[in-house]
Each structure stands twice: as C-alpha cells, then as structure tokens.
Amino acid sequence: MPRIRSIEGLEILDSRGRPTVKATCVLQSGASASASVPSGASTGRAEAVELRDGDPSRYGGYGCLKAVYHINGEINRKLSGRTFASQAELDRALIDLDGTPDKSRLGANAILAVSIAHSRASALEGGAPLYRYFAEMSGQPITRFPRPTLNLFSGGMHGGRQVAIQDVLVVPASAGSFRQSLEITHAVYAAAVELMAERFDARWLTADEGGLAPPVNRAEELLELAIEAIERAGLTPGVHVCLAADLASSHFFKDGAYRLDGKSLNSHEMKEQLVDWARRYPIVSLEDGLAEEDWDHWPELCKRLSPTTLTLGDDLLCTHPRRIQNAIQSNACNALLLKVNQIGTLTEALEACQLARDAGWMVTVSVRSGETEDDWFSDLAVGWSGHQTKAGSITQSERLAKYNRLLEIEKEMPLPMIPWPH
User: pLDDT band at residue 42, thresholds of 50, 70 and 90?
Assistant: First the structure.
C-alpha cells in the first residue's frame, strides 16, 4: 500500500492560455507522478466548483494560486505520511477534507489534480500502465477499444457563436482500429479545409477544440458542410462516416425558448427540429439537445431518437450520480458524457460511469475545451472501457497528446473497437 511522502501544486496554463492546476504526488518509495486538470467553457450548473482567485490583475481573475496554495498547504499537511489502501480511500479523504457538497472550499481543480496524480504514482509504484490501474479500479476487464468522435466544425462557445450549436463531430463508423479512425478523420478534415477555402475564402483557423469555424448563418449548414466533406473525401455518409452533434442547448435557452437561427422555439418545436435532423442526416449521437433544466421534455426526445440516435447527457447530468439516477428513472437519456472534472474525483466519476452502465447506457469519455498536454484521459477511456471518446479535433497538441497516447495503448494492447453505431 503506497504511503504519501509529499504533494505539491503548481499553476500552469491550459490550451486557452488560462491558468489551471498541476499536482505532483511523491510516494515514500520514491515513485513520483504529476497530473494536470482541464477546464470547461460550456459548463453545467451542477458541476463541482473550480477555485479561481478572482483577482482581475492576474489572468482576468482566472488565476489558480488559491487552489495551488491549498495543495501545498492543507492537502499536503493532512495527507503526507498517510497510507491509503485504495484510490477510493484517498478520494474520500479529499472529499472529507474539503467538507462542501461542491468542492468549493479547496477547489475541485485542486482535489482532482491530487486524485489523478496519486493514481499515476500508485500505478508507477505497482509497475502497471495507468490504464491497467484504472481497469483494476473499475473491476472490469478491458475487452474492447473505444471508438472516437472527433470535432469537425464548431460554433457556440467553442467557435465564436457564429451559430448557436457548439460542435459537429465525425464518427469513423467503418474503422476497424483506432489508427484507421484517425486516417479516415484526417481525410474528412482535409476535405473540410478545402471546402472552407473554396466556399468562404477562409483561412485554416480553429476553435477551442481544434474544429473549423466556418462563417455560416444557420446551424444546419454545419451538418450540410460535414456531409460534403465526407463525400469529397471519397467516403459514404452513414456507412464509412457518421455524425454526432453537441448542441449545448442550455446556452441558447432563454426565458423558456430556444433561440436558434433567429427563431424562438418552444421545447416541442426544438424536439421536432432535432428529430428532423436525425432523420435527414446520419447523426448517431445528439448531446445536450435540450437545456439542462428542461427535464420534462428529455424523455420524449430520447424516445423519438431511439434506437438510431443516442440521447447524450452532458450539462443535464454533469457526471453527477444523483442527476444520472434521476435521468435513469425518467428515461431522460440513454448515454452519459463522462467528464471527470465535473464531479471532482476519480472515485465519484467511476460511480457515475457504473450507474450509467448498469442502466444499459453508452458512455462517452470526454475532455474539456480548456485542456493541457497531459494524456491521463486516454488511459482512463481505455481502462474504464468507454464506448466512445470525445477529445476534440485532430489538430492542436493538447488534443493530439490524447490521440497519440491512444495509439500507444492500441499498440501495446491490440483489441477490436467497440462496434458503433449499433
């Protein structure tokens, strides 16, 4: 059982140039490992609270020195010299030390960085790759490799709000391996870059997660462009490549109406719009099609989209076991977008994951828009047997770090990919 010698924090920058937190855990054996945590732009109200400094003279108030102070001070003092029999025991100590329901005192960013650094140090001491540590933590064998969903076009808070919806993603449905998934996606992305130049005379500029942000006027134009890019790449939409869409609807839901493409839609009209898109385009997953508090209308949307299109909950669920249980009971959705920093520790995220699995849901393991070049996400997605991954586009080093790590894992452990879409 590993004994902690010391824990240290450091303020670093994420892919948007905003501060985030890195923690280093040193065990008594000398094993030492670090982990950095991401930050989201499109955040749900029920997410665990990142601790920010609020000092406008540093990084516009986004500084993380308070969170780092808690790691170097209280967390280090209380945990150093202690032995933890499991990751769950370590995480429970962090939760109890914080003492708030949303981790707002010490900061979810501080707590999660320590949680993951400890897992990495423990895996190192045990001589196992991190994905094996995560698999042992979950109690499930690794039998399949997750299938990626990759950003192609962005709008909303990721792409400058030229349209309301946030992302249109490609799903390399015909790929037999992760390596082949990236090859297919590269062909579609390159075709999309050509379309941008021809149609809009636009330079190759990318949004937060590496997606292209064409200057379109209607959300549906992103879907139309995605189909054109797939065909231009010599592939067949719905056969070789399918689509997924992240609407992040809470961000254009105001005063009981969805403000989409200059129209004001009530919940019923928004559902009809989504069902129509799913009928006319090869969309296999719709994320946050309705707002996070529009609970009454999610069950009907899920029913209408099934079985061909997943109803994926992100802001609705916030990787929070209580909200997931509510969604299971009401049949509000049938897939979880799992973001570890939404809940704040590995143990709580695993509880959320297992709740979803036990309900027969699919699980998409996701990064955030503000990322670092740390690659623990990839080991987690494989170790917890995620059905899909969502790590952004195939540009930008903070995204490629995840994909390159997945390629390494696939080489070490060649497995068949999750067959998706079903």
Answer: low
Instruction: Tell whether the model's pLDDT for residue 84 goes beyond 70.
Output: yes
Cα gap 148→130, rounded to integer Å? 20
Question: Would the pLDDT of 422 be above 70?
Answer: no
Task: Give catalytic residue positions.
Answer: 209, 339
The string of pLDDT tens digits covering residues 300-358 is: 999 999 999 999 999 999 999 999 999 999 999 999 999 999 999 999 999 999 999 99
Listed in order, the ranges of the chain carrying CATH 3.20.20.120 are: 138-412
Give all strands (DSSP E) within 17-157, no chain letters.
19-27, 32-36, 147-154
**How far is 349 from 138, CA to CA, in rounded Å?**
11
What DSSP character marks residue 249?
G
How is domain 138-412 classified at the CATH fold level?
TIM Barrel (3.20.20)
Contacting residues for 263 by C-beta, under 8 A, at least 6 apart: none
d(CA 5, CA 373): 26
Residues of the chain with CATH 3.30.390.10: 4-127
What H or E segment, with its residue span, contains residue 338? strand 335-338
Third-level CATH fold of 4-127: Enolase-like; domain 1 (3.30.390)
